[in-house]
Amino acid sequence: xxxxxxxxxxxxxxxxxxxxxxxxxxxxxxxxxxxxxxxxxxxxxxxxxxxxxxxxxxxxxxxxxxxxxxxxxxxxxxxxxxxxxxxxxxxxxxxxxxxxxxxxxxxxxxxxxxxxxxxxxxxxxxxxxxxxxxxxxxxxxxxxxxxxxxxxxxxxxxxxxxxxxxxxxxxxxxxxxxxxxxxxxxxxxxxxxxxxxxxxxxxxxxxxxxxxxxxxxxxxxxxxxxxxxxxxxxxxxxxxxxxxxxxxxxxxxxxxxxxxxxxxxxxxxxxxxxxxxxxxxxxxxxxxxxxxxxxxxxxxxxxxxxxxxxxxxxxxxxxxxxxxxxxxxxxxxxxxxxxxxxxxxxxxxxxxxxxx
Amino acid sequence: xxxxxxxxxxxxxxxxxxxxxxxxxxxxxxxxxxxxxxxxxxxxxxxxxxxxxxxxxxxxxxxxxxxxxxxxxxxxxxxxxxxxxxxxxxxxxxxxxxxxxxxxxxxxxxxxxxxxxxxxxxxxxxxxxxxxxxxxxxxxxxxxxxxxxxxxxxxxxxxxxxxxxxxxxxxxxxxxxxxxxxxxxxxxxxxxxxxxxxxxxxxxxxxxxxxxxxxxxxxxxxxxxxxxxx
Lengths: 356, 230
Fold this sequence. Notes:
Helices cover 27% and strands 29% of the residues of chain A. By secondary structure, chain A is of the alpha+beta class. A seven-stranded antiparallel β-sheet of chain A has the order 2-1-4-5-6-7-8. A six-stranded mixed β-sheet of chain A has the order 9-13-14-3-15-16, with helices on both faces. In chain A, strands 10-11-12 form a three-stranded antiparallel β-sheet. In chain B, strands 2-1-3-4 form a four-stranded parallel β-sheet, sandwiched between helices. At the A-B interface, strand 15, strand 16 and helix 9 of A face helix 2 of B.
């Protein structure tokens, strides 16, 4: 379990550190203060030298199509925005302390030292010396695990597109990211399959019945060559969960993400999306149980006071209160974090102090 | 065209739902000076006095009860924009001893992790009724109306109660309550009465608290503060 995280030079985080992490961490804050970026930083950190996950976090933000062509264009699309102030001369340093020591993932831009081919300068009006990509054509990731040797990988740009070069990338922790606009039913099907194959008993249907009490069965069905998770709500035929409403598919994705992150981290953006306030308490009971069952550390963002209050209520009933509410603020241009423990969150909610 | 809409049918008394009080918005820091007061009645009273004095930099916040002050301050320090707060005023009742009440407040400040000599935020404390006497908000209000022609009648009420062996546990509260019962728009509590303009703000009884509030208001930064994070 990660106890603390530090981030340098990543997106809005010039220098940022968060301590006193719990098993379940709920992150609040105003719009555009870095809540989703914090989840992305954790995702990249625990991805180790799996440099391809850079493309995944771009896809989370809707950047799914990368066109080949001029290097500057590619850099802009693929990694410039990952660096604080778009300054790719800096290094991104992501580090965490866990029980067994510190793990560290760094990103920097350099040259592969292998000219790819001469670039036509008409696109940018810029002439490149030496006829090829030199400085800045590769994003290098270096991963230092708590034990063992470092590993390195590269994301290499060329006019034809992107390729990865790596030597046995180490992935320190399993991690699943659920975006705020999650529509990845293919991943859900795979995760549901793995859950059914595992020896762990965790009833997905019971969890989903919080949101849809009519549900009597959940199964994977392949229709037209496309596998999807279907449910029976007494309509005479089964229905894809995605057609039942946002709450059901959202909760399904969240529970499956936790189940599929065994001994790792689940990262859920805007966890309350699609869920009515009246079910939040029961949802948190399920999520708490799922995190315990699969030994998962959960990081989730929210804009909802009711969501934080429901989580606080659920964890207040446990002896160890393995929950933290962290609010991000932008102060003098820097992102700060304030962490509420059991007592301070209780006081804030009871005395109606703003926590979001 | 003049189309008349059909009049909606009136709801029967069974159909009408009781009106719930509108939930208050969570407290957000918007001013450089916070004044923490003990309880809703004190909050209403202070709002009325601050408004009368036209003090624009003070944000009044009800911290609940004195036993929670330390935890409240600790939690308040986690609030968004707390770093923009320059001064925190604290207003509470003396009860039996103003000195004990002040010590208790200072203990809470220290327990919340604030250093006594820190430059920001600075703490200023006022113990009701006058920073030295035992008593409470009602003591202060009662003193402010001591020249009212009705006062001897209220005093007589207490003498009468004693004669009939009725124990009056809190004479200042009882007298203030009896006094307010004779006023128009009586709402029962000193804070509501303050909002209705019952208390004579020009009374010398309010001199000390007035000076305290004016001093708090002046403790704002000289210029350039907007109440928003930089």
